[in-house]
Design a protein that fits this description.
The chain is an alpha/beta fold and 440 residues long. It contains 14 helices and 15 strands. The structure holds pyridoxal-5'-phosphate (PLP).
Amino acid sequence: MPTPHLTNEPWDEHLIRYGMPFAPRLIEKACGTLLWDSEGREILDFTSGQMCATIGHNHPRIVQAIRDACEGALHLFSGMLSPPVVALSQRLAQMLPPNLSKSLFLSTGGEANEAALKLAKLHSGKFEVVGFTGSWHGMTSGAQSVNYVAGRKGYGPMMPGSLTLPAPNPYHCPVRHCRDACDGTCLEVGFDMVDAQSTGALAAVIAEPIESSGGVIVPPAGYWQKVREHCEKRGMLLIFDEAQTAFGRLGRDFAFQHFGVEPDILTLSKTLGGGLPLSATVISEAMERDAHAKGFIHPTSHVSDPLPAQVALAVLDVLAEEDLNARALEMGEHLSAGLHHLQQKHEIIGDVRGFGLLQGVELVRDRETRAPDAATGRAITSRCMELGLSMNIVSVGAMAAIWRIAPPLTVTRAEIDRGITILDQAIGEVLAEGKRAAAE
Ligand SMILES: Cc1ncc(COP(=O)(O)O)c(C=O)c1O
């Protein structure tokens, strides 16, 4: 998380700061890949809002679904079901393998992970949960306990039994063993450490198939199979958190399809609602039966609400009708080529990596040591915003500063080219200014 700061604008006088700095402009309108501020200036959105607006902001089908829900029902007693919720549960079951056929619909990713952790514990009768360094699973206490990228300091004890594995980051090998190609040693060392720390109650591993906030970490081929084997050896469940990776961003409906490993529990959020708050925890029929028999409870105010379910059905329709999986791969290749071109031009870009329309650009002070250049990265990010491009820079502790670039899947070639041109200009200007200042 970047250092919090005040924008000193009149509009944030009565708001609590919650992490990243507030943008220096008020946004009044959003459509497709574009935003407009209160003075009518256009901004390209290369973050899909908070990674949710995968089919573009205010897609007409989302707007229509909201209108339809207004004609039907928006919110109901938690024990009541509605046609959109039933239809969405059936739709997901059709898209997913047979062992992922039962859904619970909640509002946020944190909530879906909270439910996943509770189900894993109840079903297994154990309580230890292993997360990855650099992971982000939400801000509720259980989910935050297995977040290792930020937010652990200052709030007292995390959930008992929260353990960690090193993320397979070949650019910064966590066990100082590999460089640029992970051979999986970190996973073996990691499970040795987990075994050493465990009290004998290992319930689950929770993971993002491609770690996003942790710096867009793409694991090597066969990695998730090895994790799965380690889980099976220890009787642990595997939870995949596909908040960001499901529904097209990586060119498939679900990222686990790329890796050929099915989780025992799948959580979906951000991209399911296309910008409205909706999440899902998905498990097998057998696990659902067992959890129910053991008294599983998780009603929330907005569990099974019809409005977001109606919107999710529209999101899934658009994903299929506009063939956004294929588009994400095609546009992702174009974006990646543009970013690699910038890497050749600007020394500050140490690495470009990613998959589909989830690309990470790592900013370094020197390509050999790979020390991060977060300050320059932040200055370039601000300059991009002035020039009309919204970018997100994520910091992974003191280790790395990375732009996570993820425009909506509906982005056009021309919009990608425009974004790359702005980024090029912003990097050039900020670096030139830095050199000028150093020479004075
Ligand atoms: C992978 C992942 N899981 C869970 C969450 C939490 O989702 P929410 O903010 O909706 O609670 C996030 C949010 O950034 C995320 O990136």
